[in-house]
Sequence to fold (916 residues):
Amino acid sequence: MLEAVLDRARQGRAQAEEDLFELLAIPSVSALPEHRHDCRLAADWLVERLKGMGMFAELIEVEPEGQPVVMAEWLGHDSGPTLTIYGHYDVQPPDPLEEWTSPPFQPTIRDGVVYARGADDNKGQHLAGLKAAEHWFAAGRPPLNLRFLIEGEEEVGGRSLPAYVRANADRLSTDYLFIADGSFAAPGQPELVTALRGMLYTEIEVTGPRVDLHSGIFGGIAPNPFNSLAHILCGLKDREGRILIPGFYDDVEPPSSEELEGWASLGIDEEQQKRLMGVDELPGEPGFSLLERKWARPTLDVHGVMGGFTGAGSKTVIPARARAKVSMRLVPNQQPAKVLAQLGEAVARLATPGTRAQVFELNSALPVRIDTSHPGIEPARRAFAAAYGRSPVLVREGGSVPVTVDFQQALGTHLLVTGFGLPDDGLHSPNERMSLDQYHRGTEMVIHLMDELARAES
Amino acid sequence: MLEAVLDRARQGRAQAEEDLFELLAIPSVSALPEHRHDCRLAADWLVERLKGMGMFAELIEVEPEGQPVVMAEWLGHDSGPTLTIYGHYDVQPPDPLEEWTSPPFQPTIRDGVVYARGADDNKGQHLAGLKAAEHWFAAGRPPLNLRFLIEGEEEVGGRSLPAYVRANADRLSTDYLFIADGSFAAPGQPELVTALRGMLYTEIEVTGPRVDLHSGIFGGIAPNPFNSLAHILCGLKDREGRILIPGFYDDVEPPSSEELEGWASLGIDEEQQKRLMGVDELPGEPGFSLLERKWARPTLDVHGVMGGFTGAGSKTVIPARARAKVSMRLVPNQQPAKVLAQLGEAVARLATPGTRAQVFELNSALPVRIDTSHPGIEPARRAFAAAYGRSPVLVREGGSVPVTVDFQQALGTHLLVTGFGLPDDGLHSPNERMSLDQYHRGTEMVIHLMDELARAES
Fold:
């Protein structure tokens, strides 16, 4: 039957693209309250598709202010494995809008690539899984039990899916959990992930005078929260990229020598990497290779600074407060709660005279390690080889998929973490995109994976 | 006739308040293009008032994109001195709006104080001068020739009035130039200003990657413009407040020992200063007194930071660029152009690896020194004593009134720089305010000043 399913996938490419564009046209930005209804529309769209192919599907409401989880399942086999496919229907805010060549929620094809917010992250990736299931159902029935868990809070670190998973661990029991929310290691080179960085996302707030002051009258005696913030940020990370928070690196578990050897063999082209990023150099923590810095070392980055005057012209205000969005990527064995405490102490100490600084956690995710000897790994390798003509390499992932931790801890399942995107798909950036060829082959990869996992078990 | 004029002022207080509220209700924010028409309305309002009292008045258009200068004059005396009164009808942007108790352009009286953007800076102050002239005309005629120059670009460092003054220096020849754009040294204690700080207002732009990058994927190898900006700002000013730009202090002319002795005798109450500013300490450059730091030392302050993600939630972007609004207050003998060059070199050098930084000048003003032995000083002292019951102290001003330099250089006139505001009037801040008593006595002070200057001459 596999060939019949693959045939359907190949003949259904035009329809699969229409489906993708429909989903991409829904501006399901979870971070922006004005798009709350759009998130719901995306979730409803998915439920209808999943019901339409013959699965039981429903929206699970977990947190009063949260976005619903799309849960769908088909348990038509009395025995054999269950595969759960994860995805997230929410997307990052599209700003800065002026840098998009075509509007972020009007999917536009240029040179076989679809440009839209969410094309890679994550609509194009979980839709490949949906389409794979749809083709199996259309040809007969899937070779193993299936479940989908598609959340709407991945981009805002929401707790709905993690809470749902932890509260329903028995009911959601699954042999394999498939997460395609990453990318290829390089064009043509699929990857399987052995560890993901965690994350601690904070806001640092610095307060100075109780009211905004005029810098002409008070400049020279007034504590300035922005100048203090600069000294705090400098005290957290040095010019070269070493993080200076006392104790920050204590728990970092270095990669194994096997991992390091494997990464060295990947032959990363630094010039290509620079072109992809649009940079002239690749600065970072001294003493570590490029891939170690991307995958196995923690980071600290500032994402935005709020407060004061940011309009046109020259308002000379010493503001009452300044805030910065600052996140840290964490690596296996680091604990977000411990890092938060270390950060809070460092920040309070670094504030300049007359100012006070506090840290607020916006969200966090534990780093994740994946056992690479579990029984799903070889089937996944074969599925990639069949769909893309090349077996995946073992890598780490620099980003976090927070719910992975909950899947691992609550469900005790075998994780398969990978992705169908390409390294230059512009995640979280203007002109986010997804190669339609990658999307279609991703569908085929999941079709093969279902077949391979069912056969591996029998 | 002086008594008759003063009587009119005292009996006309209700009308004077209505006039002030009318002008304050016009949101003449020069920094915001959407208020361009409102600036014109404020200028028209002033021209009508000046014509109404019997002066020749007109709008002078200088720069195509600028705001018009209100020019009014009455040269009814064949001999005797001419007094020119300066003011500016433009105001600072009112944000943050949510911190205003009453709306910024709905003047509201609480406890004898009017709250509105521009109440102190500068509508309440130049309107006191207008009302003084109006009362003289109503009682007969002013005792000396009068001119008003009221600009609409003071808050944006515009060039219209300076260009007009320099191009028409002969025509605008004047014996005295009166500028009330400051405040009392303390409640009940008027001041005369002997020097004003200048200013250099810049934007520092830091660029990193050509496009926004995802911190999960690229964190550890991507240059982050915000982290670079923090290192630049730290390298410009240390934790204690010393400015680190090489050569920055070279041209600073220290205050005379007479000035320092005078300031020491002012007996500044540091606790009161802290309460006024809403701070717990008064940090600043080590080794200098509070008044030296406010008046005679240059400063460097950050006013706002732009770029990246500043919305709700936790977008993990490493942005392509970050910008900061940074200004320096300059003191006598420092040159903005020279400081700009020093700053540009320092900033370029301080950018962290993989980022580039540039400085753009938004505007600048030379610092000003005023000779305190000119023939207008004693009349001004007597006018203050008559109106407020106390003679002014000689102080410096921390802020700049950029056109002062042009008045001094092009007109060679005697400057009288002072103010009717109070030290806690919240200039450039939410809930800006003006004591109505200070406003009315300011009108009386200018009535006396006109009388005193005319008599001093004769």
